[in-house]
Amino acid sequence: MADHADGIGGLKYDRSKRAWPNEMNIFIALVLIVAVFEALGQILPYMDGQSFLFDTNDRFDTIFNEARLRIIILQVAIIGIISLGVTQVIISGGIDLSSGPLTAATAMIVMSFAQTELVNGNPNPAAVFGPWAMDLPVIVPVIVGLCFGAFIGSINGSLIAFTRIPPFIATLGMFLICRGIAQWWTRGQPVSFPTEGYAWLGSGMMPVIWFVLLAILCHVLLRYTVYGKHTYAIGSNEDAARMSGINVKRHKVMVYMIASMLAAFAAIVLSSKNLTAQSGMGLFYELYAIAMAVIGGVSLQGGRGSIIGTVLGAMVFGVIQSGFTYVKLDAYFQIMAMGFIIISAVVLDQWRQQRAASRS
Amino acid sequence: MSDIILETRDLTKHYGGVHALEGANFVLRNGEHVAIMGDNGAGKSTFVRQITGVEQRTRGEIIFDGKPVNFSGPLDAREAGIEAVFQTLALADHLDVPDNLFLGREKTKFDWLGPFRLLDYKAMREDTLAALEKTGVKIPNIRNTIQNMSGGQRQCVAIARTASFHSKLTIMDEPTAALGVQETAQVENIIRTLKDQGEPLVLISHNMRQVMDLVDRIIVFRRGRIVANLNKNETDGQDVVAYITGAKTQPEYDVEGVA
Ligand SMILES: Nc1ncnc2c1ncn2[C@@H]1O[C@H](COP(=O)(O)OP(=O)(O)O)[C@@H](O)[C@H]1O
Ligand SMILES: [Mg+2]
Question: Quick check: A102 and A267 in contact, CB under 8 A?
């Protein structure tokens, strides 16, 4: 009975015995990274003692450098929305590489239902359709976009669930298909001049508001609903999930659909923010979205991770990107450094898992 | 005949050319505990997979609780009242004990939300504690994820799962194969609890002592076929081994072509 010395027979729900949450580590990492950039600002000779985080202009109304914070969260918000869906896909044991090009394709399609008829009294020079598609209520392009996302997601999910195509390959194919759709839609021409209503969706800090709202929604989905529990279960042990009676195939289709709908919504916000859609937009977004999730502690082996982690991961991502600019690192090096950080995050995660496994 | 809880007639499963299970005729009465023994590859697990709807049989009939059944999946079987502990544990490593206990049949609120209905964590925790108490399983903290538990604790969770839902039939496929002495004893205690409660059980095991201790009857499988149906009181370990190895076959099961 030495195994069960406490002899409580599992008859206790002990909050204090719960493991240190992984999200805490990421939060600490976030603070450390900010501190490192702050220190670099003081140390590097060419920085003139600028502060990364704090407002050094003698303005008494603010402590933080609001402009930088605003840029960081704005930068992060749109890819962050994509990352919320990618998180769910990865937790379910899959991967989605198609989200970047899907963003472009959706933006092109949606924007052509969001145009105004007259620009400064002249006909819209970038019109895709005739007058019937002009000045539609904002709900129309939004629904078109979400439906397109759901459609692409259901193809992704069905390919993965009903054939034996690995998620990597299925979504890589969709990656190319969507980029092709984006270019074919207007033969490469940008689509511009949206209605006022549409332009509002991504104006100012709206992307951040959407990101926060959707993050809360996804957090609730993953943490408090049957959908979420089954997503973890499938990623953790697909056979166990199936034997427990979970409809694994249907669930996978649902996960990919939700992910693609989030990417489609990101496309709406992005095209609204930019007031234009271009076939080349969303470059590397799929990778950045995966990176945010992985930095946030979502395990590429499935079954582990959380929306809180991903949001923190997105913040880390934004801070690093902004910090690189702040210390005047060349754009080329920035991309390379990002690659390095993603690899480090995965290595760290595996190391942590191995340690956890050897402890038990 | 309401006495019979499970009957299979000519139950057969072929995997392509592999005749994993061939013409199994099997009867289990209410309250009875039966062991299935046989060498590795004899078809024991295959037999279980056909009954529990994990796979679709090639041929034959399954009569459960008086009705012919055609389970399209394990959930069907479970809803009909068959609980199974599979040889490869059907547990999700990254979930905790209540999550695993209720996997696939969560207690929920706001059911009109469909797949997005809310989990009733509190009710599931309470039921988990009750289930563990009923089966005498000791787990320090039910909120720990399964991955950090010992093999025995994991197995106990799997078994507590089957024992805690009022099932009409429990099937265990080598539940103690990977366990230590103490852990095995705990599992055997759960099995005795089931016996006391009059719940029928099919136990697949290689452990002769365990089988002799726990069950009423022993069925021996060899090369996909049933070769013996032995009352525990009328047999002994050596006799059973003779059937397992093929030294003996009961005359009523002696089919041409079986060595
Ligand atoms: N999915 C499968 N595909 C092909 N052959 C299988 C499959 N599952 C089991 N078998 C074969 O069926 C036979 C019986 O296997 P099994 O029922 O697992 O045996 P046991 O549980 O008695 O050790 C073995 O020869 C095994 O290799
Ligand atoms: Mg077996």
Answer: yes
